[in-house]
Amino acid sequence: MKYTTIRYGVAAALVFAIGCSSSRQSNFAGKDKLPIDRKVDSVLKLMTLEEKVGQMNQYNGFWDVTGPVPKDGQAAKKYENLKKGLVGSMLNVRGVKDVRALQKIAVEETRLGIPLIFGFDVVHGYKTVSPIPLAEAASWDLEAMKKSAEIAAAEAAVSGLNWTFAPMVDISRDARWGRVMEGAGEDPYLGSQIAIARVKGFQGDKLDEFHIAACTKHFAGYGFAESGRDYNTVDISDNTLHNIILPPFKATVDAGVLTFMNSFNELEGIPATGNAYLQRNLLKGEWKFDGFVVSDWGSMGEMIAHGYAKDMKDAAMKAANAGSDMDMESYGYLNHLVTLVKEGKVSEDKINDAVRRILKVKFELGLFENPYKYCDENREKQNIGKKEFQDGVLDMAKKSIVLLKNENKLLPLKKSGQKIAVIGALANDKTSPLGSWRIGADDNTAISFLEGMAAYKGNQITYEKGADVALGEPRFMVETKINTTDKSSFDKAIAAAKQADVVIMVLGEHGLQTGEGRSRSDITLPGVQQELLEAVYKANPNIVLVLQNGRPLAIPWAAKNIPAIVEAWHLGTQSGHAIAQVLYGDYNPSGKLPMTFPRNVGQVPIYYNYKNTGRPSTDNPESVFWSHYTDIENTPLYPFGHGLSYSTFEYSNLKLDTKSLQKNGKIKVTVDVKNTSSVDGKEVVQLYIRDLVASVTRPVRELKGFELAEIKAGQTKTVSFTIDEKTIEFYSANKIWEAEAGDFQLFVGGSSTATLQADFNYSN
Ligand code: BGC
């Protein structure tokens, strides 16, 4: 039987009249083959202006659905609005029972029975937590990151959720910004590849009951908050916006992401939520994005504080006209949009466009066919925390670890006969490794470092805390709660170190010391941990430093003095096992830094793809007038792309099949990578280019390709890359993406400081 618009109308009216959910479901379901756009139009035609605006309203979970129905206050009002069909989406409601209860109200008690979409920040796992996204990015393993997103999606989906507010694709060059833990680091190329992998993981090939809608955020520029202070003003050039910030966003549109989130910051003086250039011209215009844009939490209302809107009504008008489709918790649309349409200040066409986009995503998720598609208690029970997920996040965690330094082959550890002193509060912490943004997971559910080490029985392990990382309630951690004074446990730690063959110090940041609202002006080891490190070093310098942190840290003393340093980030539920397996050599690390580690905070922002400037260097050591500091060198502590392995690799034989790239042509680049060690290993082979002269200045290096090469001990692998016009395109002086004729340098190696070089030119 064929569906027509009339049929929807009849179906809805009928269902409304008889109030029967099952017939409503099947009537709306439409087992027909009508294209989604026509189904959307059929529904839209039935809607009043109020109901349309209702779809544009998203509420935070307001009611404990297992408790009594709210009788007064804001919760009661929200409840009434839900029943009136004035809510399109909920966030932070999770668990099949709760989701089902709210969906039932939307489907059975509202006039049209339009299902809700349930959003949640499934940023790096739901209950089973994978490494923080910055750590995952260090794996450079796109398949693994896709798989990790798939696990997160599946666990969220079985819990009733159908929309994650991820991936966060904000490029950032500022380690002070707490939210660097949520992104993929500083590079637009790597960031784009990772963004695509995550969207594909969350959404799958088809949106079945284990996959959910993804949301690319925060559009745009949020990672460039001045001084790394969260929510701060952003002031960037068009050049930086287009060449550095936007590529990962665009990549997810091309990969079919269903939704976008705008951001708290302003751009060119206009808050992103009210920014028509970003949302209408670029995203929905040029890029042809056909999903919907949700505001960030309260960001519509924040346009008042920005000084861009007079009051909430003005803010709602500006947001709607600028193309922000759904209002997260400002109540601006709900309270003002109908009036604004009646006053002619927002056209009904714009409302229709927003609602079409929202309904379309609901159709794509299959919610009209079955609003309870994600609500199966058995599925929930059978899947949450299951072994396959645990194995998956363990695999991801191992791949995320970066071996920063390993002198005298201190690592891997011997498996027996050793006395090992483990020192540091983080070693015994089962919450911190979960990191920030893991609101679906419970405290104390990570495998601690000590538990991971305990899986190996051959050595004798002693543990001393040495010093706390943080005091008080970590959930609301602020710097005043960081332990800056208590050294009373130092002595015991020093005594333990003296007795040990090897000391492992687990230091860094508490899991909630990064993330939203957790910017730091000092990015050294917090509290008295640096003093502890130096005191223990005096007693026994044979130290492996295991860092657990959510951002690049400035650790120059450790980099100089400590023989082995392992960057273990916040690795999630299986953290302890992952680190122990790497330390014992059962897993050979291959991670590479996705973000530069500075020598001190004064170097920040520091990044590998900087511009050369007019005074890049001088041959005269006495010279003053060149671009440098007088008190520290320009180079970072650890560059982008850096990471060691228990294998060693040698690069040679870099070849280009032609040195001249023609329009529509290609260059094949090959390089030999030899594993010169006696252990099998993996190496992230990286390719960078430099465009020497262009219509706008170009970075000294740009990552343009990488391959994760598995190379057996003693063997050589030839790795190849292809370069074409796309590789050399950039946002030019003409304000378009184009390839310009000229000369290029190309570098291949194991980090952004690769020295193996070849040249080519491009003529068009
Ligand atoms: C964050 C978003 C997040 C939203 C909902 C905001 O504060 O900036 O990234 O998705 O809250 O939790």
Automatic annotation (TrEMBL):
Superkingdom is Bacteria
Q: Per the record's keyword annotation, is Magnesium included, yes or no? A: no
For this protein, what is any one GO molecular function term?
beta-glucosidase activity
* Family matches, as Pfam families: Fn3-like, Glyco_hydro_3, Glyco_hydro_3_C
Protein's recorded name: beta-glucosidase
State the family named in the UniProt similarity comment for this chain. Belongs to the glycosyl hydrolase 3 family.
Question: Top-level EC class, please?
Answer: hydrolase
What PANTHER family does this protein's entry cite? LYSOSOMAL BETA GLUCOSIDASE, PERIPLASMIC BETA-GLUCOSIDASE-RELATED
